[in-house]
Specification:
It contains twelve helices and ten strands. By secondary structure, the protein is an alpha/beta fold.
């Protein structure tokens, strides 16, 4: 059987690193090695990794300060590439800090590859609704995150992604010129060569712990990245049109409420269409928060994607500030 190496890149993740590593070490399919690349943490993350090595022989911590925004325009991608280069296995599974993984995760994610049915597999991500904030649930579908492990997904995310190392080499690795969205660019390159397998119930359990403000900032960061990369122009146009028709409906209110009612109904559909079966039993407050966030989405996406396209400059995340 082919060996599997699990790879993550971290920077200042002291609050989450323990749960991440513990969940990876509790897999029913034991990884040959769990490689964690630290980009120069100053909050105790690196010291935790060094100490944990005595408890987890398969843990391989690597400190490489070039995997930070101070030294690389694409620190996350660089961290992944450093870890994958060091890996000794033929199959690589990527994970992210801020997530935990159920015991069957690695088995399910890598099964299509280990069985010779695919070279690339994606698992997606979900939140644990019982341990989520209101704004985690409200914002989830707009980040491609599901509310249940059972929901099907075809979205790519390096929170749960596996591939043959040889395939990673063929596409030139993760793009180190990209700050955010490196997994999306990698996915696009891979899909030009091979079709992905969509592994069932192989989702990362994502714990963003969002407030309204942090969810909006994350949405803005992703939209800026789309603008910088010049990708998803159709998405920009859809959101721009939503903004236009909302303004028109408001301006028409003194003359007729019908356009406003129609647009409100349409916006309600947009808010719940992706995961109605999962969210319909949520509290009234969560449903209102979802609708509010959905109404904000076209404005945040449109403005920030245009800004990214004009300035061609990404914004740092909280770990890379300073």
């Amino acid at each position: 059987m082919l060996g599997v190496s699990v790879v993550a890149t971290v920077l200042n993740e002291a609050e989450d690193i323990g749960e991440l590593v513990s969940s990876l070490m509790g897999q029913t399919l034991a990884a040959a090695e769990v490689i964690i690349v630290d980009g120069g943490s100053t909050d105790g993350t690196w010291e935790w990794l060094v100490a944990a090595k005595t408890r987890y022989p398969a843990l391989i911590p690597i400190r490489d300060e070039s995997c930070s925004l101070k030294h690389s325009p694409g620190p996350i991608a660089r961290g992944r590439n450093v870890g994958i280069t060091a890996a000794t296995s033929d199959v690589i599974a990527c994970v992210d800090a801020g997530c935990v993984y159920g015991p069957e995760w690695l088995t399910r994610l890598t099964a299509p590859i280990l069985e010779g049915k695919a070279e690339y597999a994606v698992g997606g991500s979900c939140i644990d609704v019982a341990d989520a904030t209101v704004w985690d649930v409200a914002s989830a579908p707009f980040f491609g995150v599901k509310l249940s492990e059972d929901e099907p997904t075809k979205s790519c995310t390096a929170r749960s992604m596996a591939f043959r190392k040889e395939l990673w080499e063929r596409v030139g690795g993760f793009p180190e010129t990209v700050f955010l969205g490196e997994d999306t660019v990698f996915d696009q390159k891979v899909r030009r060569i091979v079709a992905p397998a969509f592994a069932e119930r192989a989702k990362a359990i994502y714990r963003p712990r969002h407030t309204f403000g942090s969810a909006v900032r994350q949405l803005a960061s992703y939209a800026i990245t789309d603008g910088v990369l010049g990708v998803r122009p159709a998405r920009l146009m859809r959101n721009l049109m939503r903004c236009v028709v909302e303004v028109v409906a408001l301006l028409a209110l003194p003359f007729s409420a019908i356009p406003f009612i129609l647009i409100f109904a349409l916006e309600t559909y947009f808010a719940f269409r992706l995961d109605w079966r999962s969210i319909r039993k949520a509290s009234f407050g969560v449903l209102v928060a979802r609708l509010v966030f959905s109404l904000v989405v076209p404005w945040v996406v449109t403005w920030n994607q245009i800004v990214g396209g004009v300035t061609k400059a990404n914004q740092p995340n909280r770990q890379n500030i300073g």
